[in-house]
Amino acid sequence: MVNSKIGIIGAGPAGISCSIQLKRYKLDFLILEKDQAGGLLKNPFLIENYLGFPPGIRGEKFIELIERQIENHKIKIIKDEVLSVTYRNDKFYIRARKDDYRVSILVVATGTRPKRLKIPVDLLCKSRIFHEISPLRKTRNKIIAIIGSGDAAFDYALSMSKYNKVVILNRTGRVKCLPVLFQRVKQNKKIVYKTSIDIKQVKWANNKLVLLDNRYNNLIVDYLVMAIGREPNLNFFSKSLKEKANRLKRENKLYIIGDARNGLYRQTAIAAGDGLRAAMRISKKWGHTIKETKIKGTREKGKKNIKNKRDKIKKGTEL
């Protein structure tokens, strides 16, 4: 069991921002991340609304800068996947794949998980179906279908069209993405945009995916990306923790930040601000207590060491 006063789950923009600020306050914490730092930033074609980057910045490049900042602040990220979190006896108990952790204050920055399209899919097709494009970064000269009509679907299409042909399948006629993304897609000759296409089944044939739509047409592609929306990734909360969550938030013991709480307002800048604010709230509410506890523990340890030395000297004298 690993103990710490503060625990952070998730090393995306919110979690990293929180950890950097806690480090500046000299407050001890542990941060858990199952994957790479940066969260979903590995997917965007271009981040254009984050201050300080006039021409915009690609997601992968932004992650490189974040990793440098993590290194500069000497933040150690524990690579472990959280399986469940419970709360009892004024402590959060985190059960993870490699170890267990116990903290008094918990910051949840776990982002979102993709919504699933419930359609029949042949077993062999599953290795070719994704909800993010990061696993497809090295894909070349393939046909990729993307289901969706929001920012993610259009951004993914722009990213993947550099080396591949892309088909966007909008299940309705309504476009939910930013006008600038829609305009770029329409101008891109390697992207085909189709409306009112509702995929009903995915079959496997001749090492390809066969998408059967609502018009009984077959679309043959190499890969399929589902970008039909996301929801908060909080499924690891125990039932009892879900019941206590609102009270713990009011008591400033539980902080849910970033995309995990922001609904439609899932933006990098907002998530980073959430992390900063959470760290400031923790410092204001608990900083003095945490530091006092640390000083007290250091003093007690010092007294114990002095006592042990005196006992050894006394024992030596008696001999």
Can you give a write-up of this model?
34% of the residues lie in helices and 26% in strands. With 319 residues, the protein is of the alpha/beta class. It has 2 domains: 2-114 and 230-301, FAD/NAD(P)-binding domain (3-Layer(bba) Sandwich), CATH 3.50.50.60; 123-226, FAD/NAD(P)-binding domain, CATH 3.50.50. Strands 1, 2, 3, 4, 5, 6 and 17 form a 7-stranded mixed β-sheet that branches. α1 crosses α6 and α3 (151-160) runs parallel beside α4 (179-187). The longest helix has 51 residues, at 268-318. The chain is elongated. It starts with a strand and ends with a helix.
Q: In brief, what are we looking at here?
A:
The protein is an alpha/beta fold.
- Overall radius of gyration: 25 Å
Mean pLDDT: 93
Shape: elongated
Output the structural class.
Answer: alpha/beta
Strand content: 25-35%
Order of helices and strands: EHEHEEEEEEEHEHEEEEEEHEH
Stretches where pLDDT is under 50 for at least 5 consecutive residues are none
CATH topology value of the largest domain = FAD/NAD(P)-binding domain
Characterize the biggest β-sheet.
7 strands, mixed
State the distance separating the first and last CA atoms.
41 Å
Total helices: the number is: 6
Number of domains: 2
In helices, the fraction of residues equals 25-40%
CATH superfamily of the largest domain: FAD/NAD(P)-binding domain
